Amino acid sequence: MGAAGLALLVAAVAAGGDPRDTLRCSQGLACRLLDTDALCGMELPEPGRGLALAQLRLEPALRCAEPMDCSPCLEVRLRLALPPGASEPHQAVPSGHPGTEDGTDGGQRSPVNGAASSQPNITGLLLLSGNAYASSRCVAVEVWAPLASTLPNRPLGWVIFRCFEAPLGSELHVTAYTNSRGRRRLSQRQRVPDCSWPAAQSAVPQCQVPRLQITPGLNEVVVEVQGAVTGHGYTLRLYHNQSHGAGGRERAITTSGPMNYSLPAEEVLPCLCLQVWLETQDPLRASLCPFSHDAEAWERLWARSQLVLRAEGQALTCSLLAPCDLPAELVPCWQPAPTGPCQALPGLQQPAVGQGPQEFRGLQPHPSLCVQVWSGGQVRLTRCLRDRALLGRADDLLLLEHGEHGGNASLCALERGTCTPLASFTSVRAGHPGLLEEELRRDVATGQCRQIWHPENGTGVTLWACPLHKYLRTRWALAWMGALLGAACLILLLLLKKEDAKGWLKTLRADYGSEGLLRGRRALLVHAAEPSAERAACALMAALRPLGLAVVAAPGGGSGVAAWGPLPWLHAHHRRALREGDTVILLLSPAAVAATSRWDARARAVPGARDAESIAGPRHGPSPDDVPTVAPCEVFAAALSCAMPVLAAGSGRYVVARLEALVPAVPPALWAAPAFALPSETPGFLRALAGSGHRRDPWPEPYVAAVAEGLQRALGE
After folding, report:
1. What is the phi/psi pair of residue 209, to 5°?
2. Average pLDDT over residues 106-111
3. Alpha carbon 553 to chain centroid distance?
4. pLDDT over 90 for what percent of the chain?
5. Domain 208-296 has what CATH class?
6. DSSP 662
7. Of all helices (H) and strands (E), which one includes residue 690?
8. What number is the average pLDDT over the span 409-430?
9. 300 pLDDT band (50/70/90 cuts)?
10. SS3 at position 651
């Protein structure tokens, strides 16, 4: 197939080009676009005496649909020349049609306008290819040039095609092909201009980035998108900038033209950032993080942050949970008293990294260990292991050892921000007389003290926790003599005022016998599975056990619950409580009240449930046919299924404890049992646990305060 035949084929299959494509020729040449979307893989005709390619040049350009709606492109400038032998006499084509063997028309007709020409001419077919990263496009061009007064290999002129589009800043590979026997292919790579090109900044929409203006207020922050062009779609993105890969909240708002967006003040955090961009391909984005130095935003962030400690085996790990990355330091410290200072442990601090757990290698968990979060020179968060079941006592003495273990290593006691040498430690501890340096050294050397921390390389500082009560030597002889003398004087004084002595002795008997009132008694404590109820249950058990009361709690009842499920486990313990006269404590929290309401509603819907309650006796356990069914994990509802039939019959010992800070009133379904609001009604609650014979006896304030303080601390957390 000749060049003219291929040109006719391409022109026939063309579906119309892009009207924004243009083709220009220099003086003396004629050219036209055959197809602006040609098949890039098609083959050109056999080499003939077409036009040769002399030079290929690419220049940046803009392709505009409207003055302010342009896209970047590359303009192709192709210099043409005559190949060797193009000026030789032409011979006729055997088919009888005018033309030459290389596809020319013998110089009689112009391919551009079809007009006859007396000058000999030559026609060439060009294929221009533009390939970007994700797209490719080919253009077919026909060029006519005269043969008169033109020498081979001398330039004829320029053919200029505008243009090949590509994304801003991308690379474009342009190749030109021809059917000439001479130079038939030229290729060049060049980048499309980006928004740094001055001509693109005002004409390409992707380069017209809007601006963000932040206006703070009392209750909200107004985000204003300025410089947006009306009619164009924009996206405003709000996200938390995290440097350690932790996921954060993200929100995107789409709008058309300028906009205002109101952001609640409680959502303003230091890591909150904003982005805005035009809804076009590969747009530039305007980014802004305006709250990174906002003091109120930082205080809000610390208020929403949480420090979690985990004692897993012999390892202590902590996690700093926060919506943003926190420039903070984790500092282990020693705090024997809950309200006392926390002594920082030397050499153990480490920076907080991300949201995941961080382990303090070599640090052994102990009830007096805490971790503080330091930032900006002050303590932001503190979390302790005080309420965990760990080896050691809260009053253990912390010793710091320099050098090698044992022998004559340097030992000092850490307290009140200093490390006091053992030689002078006994003299400054007036409240604990008799602490001996030799005993401390011997116990450290023989392993009687527990090693809290040691460095991995075996050198440096080692920390020891020594039981303080071992080193208290009593010298009470004179004190006892003074006490006996005082008691004798007091008895003599009381004999003189017998009536007043009765009241005093009654109070004294109550003070020293209060613990005995609960000695040997047992109780089953049932609570809902929620954090507030679990903390209150733990605090209640910790306060009641020193008074002699043996408490079993569910959830958390041990392997029986895990093996049987809550309902069989509670049935067994409930039957035992009824049989042996134990007390069943129903602890009311919000989740427990909700479970009671659901249980009551199901009980009313189960036929015969109320009749079963009315005929149930104290010696008969509940039957599955008499109570509504409950889900396997609804522990409090399972407890109600056990207790309600017996409670309705007026049997058994039940006490309802209401957490008054969380539960305003006792549900009607539990009105049959005595109820107490804790911690305000702690004395009545303790008398109810002691039994009917002690309900009028006063409880001394220390015991009441211990139970109430434990509950208040648990609910406060």
Report:
1. -85, 130
2. 45
3. 34
4. 15
5. mainly beta
6. T
7. helix 682-690
8. 72
9. very high
10. coil
- In 3D space, the residue among 633, 632, 640, 568 whose CA is nearest the CA of residue 599 turns out to be 640
pLDDT more than 70, % of the chain = 73
What HEC string does 328-373 produce? Answer: CEEEEEECCCCCCCCEECCCCCEECCCCCCEEECCECCCCCEEEEE
Return the residue matching tokens 């440097």: 243
d(CA 121, CA 104): 7
Residue 502 confidence (pLDDT) above 60: no
pLDDT in tens, 219-259: 899 998 887 777 778 888 999 887 765 556 688 888 777 78
Measured distance CA(137)–CA(20) in Å, rounded: 15
Please tell me the distance from the alpha carbon of residue 66 to that of residue 424, in angstroms, as a whole number: 90
Specify which of 110-119, 323-332, 528-537 reaches the highest per-range mean pLDDT. Answer: 323-332
What's the CATH number of domain 514-716, 3.40.190.170, 3.40.50.2020, 3.40.50.11530, 3.40.630.30?
A: 3.40.50.11530
* Cα separation values, 245 from 163, 321, 584, Å: 43, 13, 49
Map tokens 């007389």 to a residue: 433
* Neighbour count for residue 460 (Cβ, 10 Å): 13
Q: In 3D, which of 681, 674, 638 has the Cα closest to residue 655?
A: 674
Give the containing element (helix H, strand E) for 672.
none
Per-residue pLDDT reduced to its tens digit, 5-41: 444 344 433 434 566 789 999 988 899 998 888 887 7
Tokens 């079809």 label which residue?
A: 114
CA distance 21 to 17: 7
Cα–Cα distance for residue pair 257/224, rounded to 1 Å: 11
- Round to whole Å and give the CA distance between 572 and 560: 10
Q: Where does the pLDDT of residue 383 fall: very low under 50, low under 70, confident under 90, or very high at 90 and above?
A: very high
Q: CA 665, CA 217: separation in Å to the nearest integer?
A: 41
Give the containing element (helix H, strand E) for 419. Answer: strand 418-421
**CA distances, 276 to each of 131, 263, 264 (Å):** 30, 15, 19
Q: Which CATH class is domain 305-384?
A: mainly beta
φ/ψ (deg, to 5) at 402: -100, 140
* Six token digits for residue 221: 């922050």
Query: Cα(266)–Cα(257) distance, rounded to whole angstroms?
Result: 27
pLDDT, average across residues 190-201: 87
Q: Phi first, then psi: give them for residue 433, nearest 5 degrees.
A: -70, 155
Query: Looking up tokens 């900006």, which residue turns up?
Result: 376
At the top level of CATH, the class of 3-201 is mainly beta
pLDDT tens figures, 464-499:
988 877 665 444 344 566 677 778 777 777 776 665
Q: Which token pair is 425? A: 């430690």
691 pLDDT exceeds 60? yes
Task: Classify residue 269 as exposed, middle or buried by CB count within 10 Å of its CB (0-12, 13-18, 19+).
Answer: buried
User: Quick one: how far is CA 453 from the chain centroid?
Assistant: 31
Phi, psi dihedral angles at 485 (to 5 degrees): -65, -40
- How far apart CA 544 and CA 302 sit, in angstroms, is 36
Give 3-state DSSP helix, strand, coil % of the chain, rounded to 5.
25, 30, 40
Average pLDDT, the chain: 76
Q: Which of 664, 653, 662, 702 is nearest to 682 (CA)?
A: 702
More confident position, 244 or 384:
384
